[in-house]
Amino acid sequence: MNGWLQKPRAWRACLKKSANSLLSACWFAYFAGYVVRCAYTAALSPMLAELGGVLGKNAEARLGAGSTAAFAAYAAGQLCCAFLLRRFRAERLLLGGMLAMGGCMTLLTCAVFTAGSAFMPFAVFPWFVAILLGLSGFAQAMLWPAIVELLTKHLHGAAYTRANVKLSEASAAGTVLVYLLVPLLSHLANWRWIFPCAALFSFCAAAPILRLPTLPRAVQAPAATPPLRSFLRFPMLPVLLAVTLQGVVRDGVGTWMPVLLTDGFAGLPPEAAVLSAIVLPFVAALSFRFAGWMERRLGNEFRGAAFFFAVGAVVALPLPFVLGRWLAPSVLLMALLTGAMHGINLMLVTQFPRRFRGNGRAGFAAGLVNAFVYLGSAVSMFGSTLAAHRFGWQGSAAGWVGVSAVGAIIFLFCRKGIRKYLQEEKNL
User: Fold this and answer.
1) What is the 3-state secondary structure (H, E, C) of the chain?
2) pTM (2 decimals)?
3) What does the pLDDT average to over 182-203?
4) Per-residue pLDDT tens for 344-354?
5) Total structural domains in the chain?
6) Residue 82 lies in domain
7) What CATH number corresponds to the domain at position 423?
8) Which carries the bigger pLDDT value, residue 152 or residue 243?
């Protein structure tokens, strides 16, 4: 009798250990992915300070093209990698992404250390960087669909939600590390050293993926999923529009905040501007926790997304009036705005795709949704700088307020359709 009781216990212990190994590997991979993603963004301000005079009056646009290429490639890569999941195991896709990111960062290291030499003339440098960052963005796109595919197969219910909160905290931890390292490296040696550091993290994060055990399927039955027609129509279309707007605001603020502070507050060194931006990931980590709690209280991710869009519009409303006048309120308001956008990210990018778990489309849904987030990010790279050149950074801030308000209005107009969709799903 005791032996019969011990076998299920041993199986459950094995399952828990395997699930923890899976979550640890995914956490480290996502952490390294954000180190790679934020490395160029964080280095942009000191890079412009050093190379801006050599590259000319369009230096911001020329160097900013690298981030645009990364976001655009990431968006396109999300769709491609979602289809690749049909042919390759998620673990292999995840491993390939980590190794490719490390390779791109290694080449970028060579480029930034030889910029201005005969090997890498300044006329070629911005274009070469944009190509490398585009390839790196495509490699980063391999991560999220593979991670969602792994987690939805082996974790359900509250365990899946907790795993998503932890992964969101991994992104915040990676961002914090980069925004600490860039000023430190700039002071001790040179901002260029952030790129070999990013390459090292990528290669190190590949090791736990190689050691992943063969995981048994979770015994809990998956939740009911919507019919295929709803995957192609409603509520996917309003969700895709909403996450595009979220990407515009989140990465518009996150990418340009150090440059905005340097331009708006005379005498603020680039290293101090980069260090000021470290408040963003701390607020984001708190936002992920709060968003997980809010989803349980509000009942579904759609209400949560509407709530965070409304919060973003309200907290950003004073931003155009304080930018360039008061540093601390400007940083605080931008942090709260990006925190609200990260709350939307948890609701729609991590929680929404689980509704397609039953028909095996969770990975594809995650890739599709995340692709539109970074479509918005690519738009923000061009749109924010265009507004800043024409109306100043206050014009960009006013645009962020308007975009947040439009996001809340989308869910307000779609509330009846969403209610009907949720009722149909419950009746399946």
Assistant:
1) CHHHHHHHHHHHHHHHHHHHHHHHHHHHHHHHHHHHHHHHHHHHHHHHHHHHHHHCCCHHHHHHHHHHHHHHHHHHHHHHHHHHCCCCCHHHHHHHHHHHHHHHHHHHHHHHHCECCCCECCCCHHHHHHHHHHHHHHHHCCHHHHHHHHHHHHCCHHHHHHHHHHHHHHHHHHHHHHHHHHHHHHHHCCHHHHHHHHHHHHHHHHHHHHCCCCCCCCCCCCCCCCCHHHHHCCCHHHHHHHHHHHHHHHHHHHHHHHHHHHHHCCCCCHHHHHHHCCHHHHHHHHHHHHHHHHHHHHCCHHHHHHHHHHHHHHHHCCHHHHCCCCHHHHHHHHHHHHHHHHHHHHHHHHHHHHHHCCCCCHHHHHHHHHHHHHHHHHHHHHHHHHHHHHHCHHHHHHHHHHHHHHHHHHHHHCHHHHHHHHHHHHHC
2) 0.75
3) 93
4) 998 998 888 88
5) 1
6) 20-213+222-427
7) 1.20.1250.20
8) 243
